[in-house]
Amino acid sequence: MLEHGLVLFHIPGIPDFISNTWIVMLILIFIASKLSKKLDLFPKGKFLLSLELMAKFIKDLMEQTIGKEKTKKLFPFFFALFIFILALNLWGLIPGAVQPTSNVNTTLALALCAFVLYHALGIKYQGIVNYIKHFLSGPKWLVPLMLPVEIVSHLARIISLSFRLFGNMFGDEMLVLVLMMILPIGLPLLGIGIVFGNSFLQAFIFFILSLIYVALAVHHEDHDKKKENNLPNIDLA
Amino acid sequence: MWKLIFLKNKKERKTFLKLLKISSTITSFAFAIIIGFTGGYYLDEYLNTSPLFTLILGLIGIIAGIKVFLEDLKNF
């Protein structure tokens, strides 16, 4: 939005969206280190309480989707992902700051994190041989066709994940810009309100879709076990 | 929408999550086809074999899209 004007945290030779991402990371690390010292059974302060509420909401959703055991292991990653995306989205509300998520490189990097995670979990829970077998499912003569089909279908997942976040945040930024061009006083507030609301929604959507992909990787394993034990299939979501 | 997300009613929350799944399925379906065709197009441009790879990878993209769609449909 302000690429040709004043940009905060501009480091020569480094793209602005990267320098802004670093600043957000530093702020989050600083807040997390400060808050971790204040942890208590009965937390004090509105900020800590609201964070705990958010953490509980995410934990509940994860338990419903992937079960309690896996939630214990995966909660730090997913909560960090949610908070990081939310912070990156909200960063755009600061005048002069560049919103990192309105650049496709940031969103693609975030989607790659989710992509690597769900494949790593698939390999961990199923073993590398069984996991590769999933890619080559079907009759033997279909294997040469199924491999590129599987690769394209998995690529489609990360690209849809990253483009959804990028498109939404970039569109929001453009909306604020257009409103600013129409009437610079008052009217952009409407756009800023939309950016604020959409920041939460997009962070949530990114988190829940990554979670669903992980659940699907885990689901394959459960599904196979149920087949072996002749148990009925249970809906996960 | 916010009411649905924060609603404690499990049925409504499930419906919302299913809607999200459907939206993800549809975009994945579209992107699978786009990846197939654009990959094929650039490969053809690079190898001067137009329209061979556009058709082959486009077809693979369509099959991948349908596969994603059917796989996700199974899990609803």
Concise synopsis of the structure shown:
The complex is a heterodimer of chains A (237) and B (76). By secondary structure, chain A is mainly alpha-helical.
Helical proportion of chain B, percent range: over 70%
User: Beta-strand level of the residues of chain A, as a percent range?
Assistant: under 5%
Please give the largest β-sheet of chain A: none
Average per-residue pLDDT of chain A, rounded, comes to 84
Characterize the biggest β-sheet of chain B.
Answer: none
Name the shape of chain B in a single word: rod-shaped
Question: Uncertain spans of chain A, ≥5 residues at pLDDT below 50?
Answer: 227-237
Strand portion of chain B, in percent? under 5%
Order of helices and strands of chain B: HHH
Structure characterization notes:
The complex is a heterodimer of chains A (237) and B (76). Chain A has 7 helices and no strands. With 237 residues, chain A is mostly helical. Chain B is rod-shaped and about 60 Å long. Chains A and B meet through helix 2, helix 6 and helix 7 of A and helix 2 and helix 3 of B.
Topology, element by element:
The complex is a heterodimer of chains A (237) and B (76).
Chain A: H1 16-36, H2 46-66, H3 68-91, H4 104-126, H5 128-135, H6 143-182, H7 188-229
Chain B: H1 2-6, H2 10-47, H3 52-74
